[in-house]
Amino acid sequence: MSPTESPTVPPGWYPDPGGLRQWRAWNGRAWTDLTRPYAQPTHTEWSLDAVGSIAWLRNVGVLAFFAGLGLLVSALAHWPGTADPAPRWYAVTATDVASALLVFATVLYARGAVALGGHRALAAVPGLNVLYVGSLVATREYGAGAGRRRLVGEAVLLALFVARAHAQPWLAIAPALVALEQAASLRVLLGRLVGPPRRDL
């Protein structure tokens, strides 16, 4: 029986229903976009939910966090009453949008950290979970020393940006570097989990 014949088939890797020579992931309700060649084994220590959490984090969470952080720091640096104020309506709106982006990203980072095997308590701390995910990915790929170095490096760059961006706008490069590194690391990790990206789409 194939997953298309019954919705009670458990999630897992099955032959692609489109006839392509590959495995396709079934999430228990529908076919997903996750595929892998037949040459790779179909068993994995990663659940489809974990892979999905990491994919959401890579595709949406990284951008949401760093866009929210940049917008919040900018709005606070130009808050009415500062040396270079923005209109009050803009400052309030920008702060609200930034807060929404940061809350959304915090949820995605928490799910990603847990999927990577992190502790739930650390995964739930806003801001810290961003550094925690970077450390978990570096540890998984290169060992504990690399994870610690990445944690310290990213913490210093982000702290420098938050503390001095109002006086030194060029420091916006710091969170951009962290965002690019995290997105690239998560892309590599996802590539290892689900195989190379499909070229026929």
Task: Note down, in words, how this protein is organized.
- This protein is mainly α and 201 residues long.
- The protein has a three-stranded antiparallel β-sheet, with no helix packed on it.
- Strand 2 and strand 3 form a beta hairpin.
- The protein is elongated and about 65 Å long.
- It has helices at 48-77, 88-115, 120-123, 128-142, 144-164, 173-194, and strands spanning 12-15, 22-26, 31-37.
- The model has no long low-confidence stretch (mean pLDDT 86).
- It is built from six helices and three strands.
- The two termini are 27 Å apart.
Task: Give the distance, in angstroms, between the N- and C-terminal Cα atoms.
Answer: 27 Å
Structural class: mainly alpha
Helix content: 55-70%
Largest sheet: 3 strands, antiparallel
Quaternary class: single chain
Strand order of the largest sheet: 1-2-3
Mean pLDDT: 86
Which runs of at least 5 residues are low in confidence (pLDDT < 50)? none
| Number of strand elements | 3
Principal-axes geometry comes out as elongated
Short description:
The chain is mainly alpha-helical and 201 residues long. The chain contains 6 helices and 3 strands; from the N terminus they run βββαααααα. The radius of gyration is 20 Å and the shape is elongated.
How are the elements arranged and paired?
Layout: E1 12-15, E2 22-26, E3 31-37, H1 48-77, H2 88-115, H3 120-123, H4 128-142, H5 144-164, H6 173-194
